[in-house]
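Holo model, adenosine-5'-triphosphate. Inputs:
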Amino acid sequence: MTAPLDPTHPSVPGGSRNIQAIRGMHDLLPERVGTWQRLEDTARQVLERYGYAEIRTPLVELTELFKRSIGEVTDIVEKEMYSFADRNGDSLSLRPEGTASCVRAVIENGLLNQSQRLWYRGPMFRHERPQRGRYRQFHQIGVEVFGLAGPDIDLEVILLTARLWRALGLDGLRLEINSLGDAAERAAYREELVCYLDRYRDRLDADSQRRLTTNPLRVLDSKSPETQAIVAAAPSLMDRLETQTRDHFAAICAGLDAAAVPYCVNPRLVRGLDYYNRTVFEWITDDLGAQGTVCAGGRYDGLVAQLGGRDTAAVGFAMGIERLVELMELTGEGAAPQLDAYFVAVGEWAQRQAPVLAERLRDAAPGVRLMTHCGGGSFKSQFKRADKSGARYALVIGDSELERGVIGVKALREEAEQQELPLAATAAFLSASQQST
Ligand code: ATP
Ligand code: MG
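Output:
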């Protein structure tokens, strides 16, 4: 074989073509990481306040797991999974969502003897068309509760999400809920729905025509306006629910009313995944364009048994971190990574002393974020760096400060006299100023 002559070809030594990230998979750069951390930290605090425990599962599972849980005729399994053959021939897939892995893990590790309230976070992978709010690697924080069948826990997971939005300062989210009934109710309804939709088959969009035979309930959430118009007059599953299911749903609604969490019952709300029964809900915003659902979940009582575990009630949700972060940035709830102080040292002596003094400051002021200048340079160039770092204060030492045993403290973001303080007082000052923000 002859080597390619194109010098930009990646196989040519020294070829200059840059290797890029995979389409739909993004680097999370430092300027945005503060908002991610704020969301992740707040979510974790809220989840801990409700007694939820974190679980971490592998990113890769047997493809069979997702086929059996999510369902063969869903978008995810039909066309969105990253599947590949392992070296021994097993078909593996990058996880497209967290529920299936979580269910596998609780069965495999024998956690179902008592109820479990679990949460997870991490990347998910779906080969979708990349667009705003829709990526091929995206991130979720999710909750799965096992072994609790009553409406009280459905209510709890919804209230928990409402508390998270409040903690994040997101007040434009709308809650939609619905009941998909139990298996028998849904089967009966499904027949009725197919019968109705069949009359308009020719006017349905192509996807919906296909779903009419594979997954007719999903026609209900078609985005096509003409299909939507047909669906608007379709029989409603809500009207077909038996007493028990209706009571379950009514109890959740009553709980939301009592907690003063506004919601809207949307009888067309069905979820993309096969495994839901009874309660489904979504939190939606109008501020993110077409991909407005930031959190979605519901009850899935049949899944544990379907995957070989003992019959176990279950309820959960997953939220999309990218969408929430974008919303936080839009509404001014983003957070910049922050620095309290930047340590400037001018002259040889000071440069030798700076690391030692900075360590002592870090010992004395544990919460304070202090960056030390590295690489030397003039006072002017170091001070420019201090300003660019975003720190609130520059700490300055040179021969004269060292001789007098003080540190120069200069405010960078507000008008204030420069002060000179001994080390302990500098530490105390930085700690106090941090608490005042
Ligand atoms: P959608 O209707 O937006 O496709 P979905 O029903 O496929 O959502 P779920 O599987 O329920 O979504 O995932 C829960 C949440 O994860 C979504 O509400 C969304 O916020 C987020 N999410 C799902 N897919 C993606 C993606 N490809 N990119 C970014 N976020 C996503
Ligand atoms: Mg989807």
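The mean pLDDT is 92. The two ends are 66 Å apart (CA to CA).
Archived with the compound record.
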